[in-house]
Design brief:
The complex is a heterodimer of chains A (517) and B (264).
Chain A (H helix, E strand, L loop, with lengths): L6 E5 L6 H9 L4 E3 L3 E9 L4 H4 L2 E6 L2 E6 L5 E5 L17 H10 L5 E16 L5 E13 L5 E3 L3 E6 L4 H13 L4 E2 L4 H8 L21 H25 L3 H20 L6 H29 L1 H7 L9 H23 L1 H17 L14 H21 L7 H21 L5 H33 L1 H5 L4 H33 L2 H10 L2
Antiparallel strand pairs in A: 1-10, 1-11, 2-7, 3-4, 3-7, 4-5, 5-6, 7-8, 8-9, 8-10
Helix pairs in contact in A: 6-7, 6-11, 6-12, 7-8, 8-10, 12-13, 12-17, 13-14, 14-16
Chain B lengths: L2 E5 L8 H14 L4 E5 L5 H5 L9 H6 L10 E2 L5 E4 L8 H6 L7 H6 L8 E5 L6 H9 L2 E6 L3 H17 L5 E9 L4 H13 L8 E2 L2 H9 L3 H4 L4 H17 L17
Parallel strand pairs in B: 1-5, 1-6, 2-4, 2-5, 6-7, 7-8
Antiparallel strand pairs in B: 3-4
Helix pairs in contact in B: 1-11
Classes of the chains: A alpha+beta (517), B alpha/beta (264).
Chain lengths: 517, 264
């Protein structure tokens, strides 16, 4: 059960200490001050702040690990202390309520310490005329450790916790504190203050593209806005990729590289041709060096699902395959880290940043779309890719080679990215349903291709698996899996026609014609 | 699941309220979410927890289901211990219950919506045997009976046991303990030793007649608040440990020594 605690947090005015606050209160209302105690807490979250987004805080302290409401700290679940670990995956936690609560939130994302906070808490009871506590207060004087040697003080705050049945007293006290004593409402909890004090972003860093464009904006300027956002995502995900914190750093980095490449292609005429050619090659290479590790990440992440596809008696047989995949992944990851740490990659990111910085000031003679309004350029590209997809999709029949579906999927990704980049230029009621039908088509095309890729990969590992202990049984189980993947691929292909028809209805074509011109 | 424990005796002045408050505070201090319902119109438990003995709408509307209990509950000075206060109108509880359809199920019905909020509900019951008592028997999982070490008091206890066995369907489990004992009196010592050895329903822990218990009304709080390590304080801690172990043998580990309720 979630405990509902009526409460609020107020910030003390500058220069007022805990004892000063207690004195100021005592002159206004009957209070009883209790003994102060010190609380050392380490707050944990994923890089993208999933615990925070759920309104929770994961707190490691002497008392253990606690999942609690982010503001009131009312406990939701409890587990054993994390101790010295610096990175924890949900699978590393012992089974129990805490893990069960965190699993759906975190999925594959790792937890890392985001703030270390030391708080001196001074509890104060506000009494009524019977001498009974009707509101509980705690003055918190907190500091956060920035590194092993330095720490910084955070603004003292006052926690007000209501006592059940005394809501009016809580409200009266709050009004007194704000009105007469000059306290202000705390807009965020102490752990967010601590993250901000250390230069971080409270709530974590999202890899979602969030840009706002105007239709009349110059196309090169709009491209720079989008590309800078993507470059930031690449840069912030690079350290986690190198340190192998979890699989999503690499995933988000690769998505941003792919989006960058899509924009380089689709808006090619806003860039000078020669530098663009070089950067396109560079980003292509960045995509390639990160590819094998990601492919193996996907296989390992989906391994559980593959196992579930096997009859219960054969599921344990594929264990050698998992070990082999993990070994391959380690080797590929090391190779990738070497490549990403190399001078050329650093130079590419630095030069790309400088190039974007200067782009809008560069001459437009060799970039005909640069000064056109982005509304025109983007609309034209969206309409063109959509039309191309309709044409390609219509040409696909039962006899078409697999490549025809793969090519259509690539165009689908291109269209999806364009709609994401430029969604702020168009009405949501046009973009949303269009993205919906495109996503549903892409799901089928994606499954069609993934089944093929996975089956090919399994086949390619056959010889190696056969040479392992228990290899024969693993090989037989893999045979079942390949068969299963082929069935799934057939199913996906059967669903294609219906999904494509929804994507390319006469009504949808008309909307595209009308909106994206 | 909530366990409802009624501190009950037909007789007054046997330590019902002291037991209800002290055990409720110890349960809360050990991490349980506890509600104490002061059903006695005298409101001694309510007074000792420093709450005004009044509920909005009065007892009648509460027992006949017109008013919910939840908004009437007051937090105490002790973490996890809440109080449903007494009200002077409880003196007419029998009349209020008599006007309802199934009077012996009414108190259980009042508590039902609170089941997910509390691990334990303690009922501090008024003395007497009446319709209200029968409704208490219908709501309680455990009837905890403080016994005075006298032959007369034991006879009354036997009557109560018989009444519940014969008249109350699915009645509560009855557990008793000796209250207000005087270790200097041979009769007390002999009765306690004999009954707790021969009667499974009599707990081994006895609560002494100690001035700390009387002091509760002065300090306005449980013994654990001001004399946790005195004779009475230790006895209540032992009684709670024994009671909890009897109610839930699997999870009923003794509470750690020195664990006391402190005003939060």
């Amino acid at each position: 059960m979630r405990v509902i605690v009526r409460g609020t947090q107020l910030l003390l005015p500058d220069g007022l200490s805990a004892s000063g606050a207690a004195d100021a209160l005592a002159s206004e209302i009957p209070i009883v001050t209790q003994r102060a105690h010190v609380l050392e807490r380490t707050f944990w979250d994923s890089f993208d702040g999933r615990v925070h987004a759920a309104g929770l805080a994961l707190i490691d302290s002497a008392g253990g690990l606690s999942l609690a409401d982010a503001t009131t700290y009312a406990e939701v679940a409890r587990g054993a202390k994390l101790g010295r670990a610096q990175r924890v995956l949900v699978d590393d936690l012992p089974p129990g309520d805490l893990r069960a609560q965190l699993e759906p939130l975190l999925e594959m994302r790792a937890l890392t310490p985001i703030a270390r906070v030391r708080s001196r808490m001074l509890p104060i009871g506000v009494l009524d005329d019977e001498g009974k506590t009707v509101v509980r207060l705690r003055v918190e004087e907190a500091s956060t450790r920035l590194d092993s040697e330095t720490s910084t003080a955070l603004r003292p705050r006052l926690h007000l916790t209501g006592v059940r049945g005394y809501d009016d007293e809580l409200e009266r006290l709050r009004a007194l504190l704000v009105g007469s004593l000059g306290l202000t409402e705390a807009v965020r909890p102490v752990q967010d203050d601590a993250v901000a004090a250390a230069g971080g972003t409270p709530g974590g860093i999202s890899s979602k593209l969030r840009v706002k464009l105007r239709a009349e904006q110059r196309a090169d300027g709009a491209a720079v806005v989008v590309l800078r956002d993507l470059l930031t995502t690449i840069e912030v995900n690079l350290p986690g990729t190198l340190a192998d914190v979890d699989s999503e750093f690499l995933h988000d980095l690769r998505v941003s590289v792919r989006r960058t490449r899509a924009l380089q292609r689709e808006l090619s005429k806003v860039f000078p041709p020669e530098p663009l050619r070089c950067f396109r090659d560079d980003f292509k290479e960045l995509q390639q060096v990160t590819g094998p590790t990601r492919d193996l990440d996907v296989q390992l992440l989906e391994f559980g699902e593959l196992e579930r596809d096997l009859p219960a008696t054969s599921a344990p047989d594929v264990a050698p395959l998992r070990t082999l995949l993990a070994d391959h992944r380690s080797a590929e990851q090391r190779k990738m880290v070497r490549a990403l740490r190399s001078e050329p990659v650093r130079v590419v990111l630095r030069d790309w940043s400088a190039f974007l910085e200067d782009l809008t000031d560069a001459p437009t003679t060799d970039r005909p779309d640069a000064a056109r309004p982005i509304g025109d350029v983007a609309g034209h590209r969206i309409a063109k890719v959509y039309k191309r997809m309709v044409k390609m999709g219509r040409a696909i029949d039962d006899a078409s080679p697999h490549e025809a579906l793969h090519d259509l999927r690539k165009q689908g990704k291109e269209l999806r990215y364009l709609l994401e980049f430029f969604s702020s230029l168009y009405p949501a009621d046009v973009v949303k349903p269009m993205v919906g039908s495109l996503k549903s088509l892409q799901d089928v095309l994606g499954r069609f291709q993934d089944c093929e890729v996975q089956a090919d990969q399994l086949r390619s590992l056959g010889d190696e698996v056969a040479a392992l202990d228990g290899g024969a049984a693993a090989l037989m189980a893999m045979g079942v899996l390949v068969e299963r993947l082929r069935d799934d691929q057939h199913t996906a292909r059967d669903q294609f026609a219906e999904r494509f028809a929804r994507f390319a209805t006469a009504e949808q074509r008309e909307i595209v014609k009308r909106t994206f011109t | 699941m909530t366990t409802v424990i009624a501190s009950y005796n037909i007789k007054g002045g046997v330590g019902k309220t002291s037991a209800a408050i002290n055990l409720a505070a110890l349960a809360a201090a050990s991490g349980e979410r506890v509600l104490l319902w002061d059903l006695d119109p005298q409101g001694a438990a309510t007074f000792m927890l420093r709450v005004k003995p009044k509920i909005k709408g009065g007892g009648r509307k509460l027992v006949n289901g017109k008013n919910d209990a939840a908004p009437l509950i007051k937090g105490s000075d002790y973490e996890r211990l809440d109080l449903l206060p007494a009200d002077f109108s409880y003196r007419n509880m029998d009349l209020a219950l008599d006007a309802t359809k199934r009077p012996t199920r009414r108190l259980a019905a009042v508590l039902a919506p609170l089941a997910s909020d509390y691990d334990y509900v303690f009922l501090d019951c008024p003395p007497a045997i009446s319709l209200a008592s029968e409704s208490i028997f219908g709501a309680a999982d455990v009837l905890l009976v403080p016994l005075i070490a006298s032959p007369l008091s034991l006879r009354t206890f036997a009557q109560l046991q018989r009444f519940i066995a014969e008249e109350v369907r699915d009645g509560p489990r009855i557990l008793a303990f000796f209250s207000m004992t005087d270790g200097r009196k041979r009769l007390h010592r002999e009765l306690i030793a004999e009954l707790s050895a021969t009667h499974e329903e009599v707990l081994r822990t006895a609560i002494p007649a100690a001035s700390d218990v009387e002091q509760m009304a002065v300090h306005r709080g449980p013994v654990s608040d001001f004399a946790a390590h005195g004779r009475a304080g230790r006895a209540y801690a032992a009684l709670w440990a024994e009671l909890r172990a009897r109610i839930d043998p699997a999870g009923g580990a003794a509470i750690p020594r020195g664990e006391t309720a402190t005003r939060a």
